[in-house]
Amino acid sequence: MDPIIEIENISFAYEEGEDGEKPEKAIDGLTLSIERGSFVAVTGSNGSGKSTMAKHLNALLLPSEGRVLVDGMDTKDEDKVWEIRRRVGMVFQNPDNQLVSSVAEDDVAFGAENLGIPSEEIRQRVEAALKAVGMYEYRKKGAHLLSGGQKQRIAIAGILAMGPECIVLDEPTAMLDPRGRADLMDILEALNGQGKTIILITHFMEEAARADRIIVMDHGRLALDGTPVQVFSDPERLRELKLELPFTVELAGKLRDAGLDIPQGIIFEEELAKAVCELK
Hints:
This protein is 36% helix and 21% strand. By secondary structure, it is an alpha/beta fold. It has a single domain (3-245), classed as Rossmann fold (3-Layer(aba) Sandwich), CATH 3.40.50.300. The chain has a six-stranded mixed sheet. It has a four-stranded antiparallel sheet with strand order 2-1-4-5, with no helix packed on it. Helix 3 packs parallel to helix 5 (148-160). The longest helix is centred in the middle third of the chain and has 16 residues, at 178-193. It starts with a strand and ends with a helix. The model has no long low-confidence stretch (mean pLDDT 92).
C-alpha cells in the first residue's frame, strides 16, 4: 500500500458556545489511510463529521489530538502548509463561493498564478484543465452565464491547474440537478483513471457506489469501511446509521425476497437488468 494521506487517531471539536458548554467532538479518535490513486467516498448522516474530516486533509483545520500526514508531511507543520495544499486540492459545495474572476479561464488560472508558476506553463495548464472537465469551449464565458454544474467544473479545473495529486470534494453535487451530478461523477471517474486520488464527501449513496472504497462516519468515528459491495451487504447497519441503500441495491434485495434468483453484490442498473434477463 502507498498511502498519500494518513490520519492517526485525530480528534477535533469546534469552539464552545456562548453558554460555555464543552462542545461535542466533531471528530473522535479517527484513524484511517487513503491509498494513492484510489477513489474514496466518505459518507454519513448530518453531523457525522465527514465534512470536518475533509477540511483536515489540506490543513484547513488542524486536529486537537493526533496528526494528519500528507505524503509524510504533518499538517501542523506551518512550514509545510503550502506544499500540502499543492498536493491536496479542495472543492466545496457551492461553486459560487469559489469563483473569483469574471471570465472562466481567468478563474482557472488564479490558483496557479498564486503559486508563482511561469505564464507559459499556466496557459498550458489552464487549457489542459478546461479540456479535462469538458469546459474548453466555455473558456471566454462569464461565470454568471454558466449553470451550476458548469461552475463546479470550472472550480475543479482551477484545482487541476494547480497540479495536485489528490482532490477532495466536499458535497460538490449537492446543489446540482441529477444530470449535473451524473456528469460531474463521470469527470471524477475520468480523473481517477488518469491517476488522481479522489476523495468524495457525499450523502448520495448512488455516488458512493461508484467509488473503489466507501468510508461511513458516525459521530466523528469510523462506522464502516470497505468496498461498495461490502458496505451495501449490511443494510441493517446502514439503516441504523440513517443511510439508505442505492435504489438498485434495494430493488435487487426485494427481488430476492420475492424468490427470484438474483445474485448478491449487484450495485448498478446494468448489472440488475442483465441478472433479470438471465432468469430462467
